[in-house]
Amino acid sequence: MGQTVELACIIDDDKIYVNLVKKIIEIKKLSENLLIYKNGKEALDYFKEIMENTTDENKLPDIIFLDLNMPVMDGWEFLNEFIKIKNKLNKKITLYVVSSSIDPRDLERAKSFNLVTDYLIKPIELKKFEKIFEKTAA
Amino acid sequence: MLNDLQLNSILEDFDIAYWKINLFSREIHWSNHFSILVGDPEIEEDRFEFFINHILHPDYRYDFRIHFEKLIKENEPFSFEIRLKLENGKYRWFECKNQKSRNNDFRETAVLLFVNIHQSKRDQYTIEENFFYYRETAEMTSTGGWYVDTVNKNIYWDDVTLKIVECPRDFQPAYKDRMKFYAEEHHNRMRNAFDKCENFGIPFKLELKMVSFQHREFWVRLTGKPVYNNDQEVVGIRGVLQNIDENKNNELNLQNSLDIIATQNSRLFNFAHIVSHHLRSHSSNLSLIVELLRESKSDRDKLDLLANVEDVSDNLDSAISRLNDIVSVQTSLKKEPVRIRFEKALEVVLASISSLINRENAKIVAEFQDLKEIRYIPEYLESILLNLITNAIRYKQPGRKPVIFIQTYTDNDKEYLEVSDNGMGIDLDEYGEKMFGMYKTFHPNNPEAKGIGLFITKNQVEALGGSISVSSTLDIGTTFKIKF
């Protein structure tokens, strides 16, 4: 394996899922660091703070895994807010929507966002995770 | 004076035939025209008997003999209708009448006229027949006729219209009261159509609600066309009015059912996706665990993962039981609504959550004096109260003793229930739309929130044809208002 991703970000309220992904990343050494937020608002607050206070691009993730169904601020609302600030963040960020919803309407809607690289349906296989991280790191 | 020849030809032109009868010898002379009409038969027997047996329709034999005797013995005018068989073998209608002799003393001859009335008789039949069909059609389709004399300001309604509008048969609608018979909300439409027809001769066809003499509202289809005088000025409007109340109501009911089915269908569709989504999130975690188990090398890792399996199992279990709660909203709909006292429903609810109330030291104030009871499904009312009260306590303002104010009342014949609290409130601009959605939770750090209570409450209220709304101020409190 060549390069690893520096910083990955998971926005998901399912603790079990987050723990499992954390474990995968540890075992496979896919990312050096990991940000975890349990809803869109927490993640957004973090990004806004960085945007206002530092220019440290190392604090911005290379890759985001965004869940759709979350309390307080769901994935859709996060996307709508994130579009507004994305250009001000001085880094290329790859964003994947990750959901257990197989509703085709969700899939269509996610793909209508330019900043969404792909829509991943849970569960994601280990190999798929590895591929995604490799692609992002390269 | 006319001579016989001239007279004969005039009578012929009018299709009038006659008999000349010698009162003494009873000898009968047929006019030329009469002979031709009946086909100029060879007559060997008595002319009168031949006429009776071969020309006159059998139904009139008796009457004819009586009248004939009268004609000979008396000198009184008479007239009656008979049918004669003509040369083509078909019966035709004639009016048979005598010519009263001017000279009373010396009556030698009498004249019996046969006037062909077949055409007018047929016209009369056609008119009667048409009138019959018109009546039957009007009755069957409940369509009445009406006329408004716009010059003299008079209204005329026919019998069927009077019946449709539930008026007495001798009722005469007054021009100034004409709007009274239309539902308030359709006054403008009616007036516009009428004015346009009266001023510009534009016909109209409307579907609108009328108000009957008995103050009952019903739907009609109304057509109106202008009536012109010789100077081409509109002097009236006439048209028909059809009672379509049954059809219209069926149509409205059908539309209503269609709407309900459409919303239920989309709700079911959403429900199916939500269910699959929610169950899938657990199953996908399980399959991730299995994959990781295969990959993990150390026993410690494996034990960690097994603990996760237990969590997934618990989550799956509670997810299914919550889905069960939702499904039961639909199944209990089959129960019949009964009259329930709010106070009693509240008692049941408070008893079931007494430990929560005591723990939080919550104060519950109920005012049911304006509306003491309601027809409802008891389980629903209890579930609604339970959800709203537990929500109010759960989302209390930290440090403030929770107070919940419950009130029922009627407004404009509609029944309302309001549940207000002094809790933390919610930002409706941000969350208002999602408030009643499934699995929507708004207060971070509240693990008890499952995002299901208000979803079920809304479903229950709507399932019985009501609606629920919310108003809230952050840090002040929230009020839920249910219209039953």
TrEMBL record, chain A:
Residues 7-137 form the Response regulatory domain. The modification 4-aspartylphosphate is found at residue 67. InterPro entries: CheY-like_superfamily, Sig_transdc_resp-reg_receiver, TCS_response_regulator. PROSITE patterns: RESPONSE_REGULATORY (PS50110). It holds the Pfam family Response_reg. Keywords: Phosphoprotein. One of its GO terms (biological process) is phosphorelay signal transduction system. This is Response regulator. It comes from Christiangramia aestuarii. The lineage of its organism: Bacteria, Pseudomonadati, Bacteroidota, Flavobacteriia, Flavobacteriales.
UniProtKB/TrEMBL annotation, chain B:
Residues 274-484 form the Histidine kinase domain. It catalyses: ATP + protein L-histidine = ADP + protein N-phospho-L-histidine. Keywords: Kinase, Phosphoprotein, Transferase. Coiled coil: none annotated. CDD domains: HATPase, PAS. The keyword rRNA-binding does not apply. Its EC number is 2.7.13.3. It is an enzyme of class 2 (transferase). Residues 204-256 form the PAC domain. GO terms for molecular function: protein histidine kinase activity. It comes from the Bacteria. InterPro entries: HATPase_C_sf, HATPase_dom, His_kinase_dom, PAS, PAS-assoc_C, PAS-like_dom_sf, PAS_fold_3, Sensor_kinase/Photoreceptor. PANTHER family: PAC DOMAIN-CONTAINING PROTEIN, PHYTOCHROME-LIKE PROTEIN CPH1. This is histidine kinase. The lineage of its organism: Bacteria, Pseudomonadati, Bacteroidota, Flavobacteriia, Flavobacteriales.
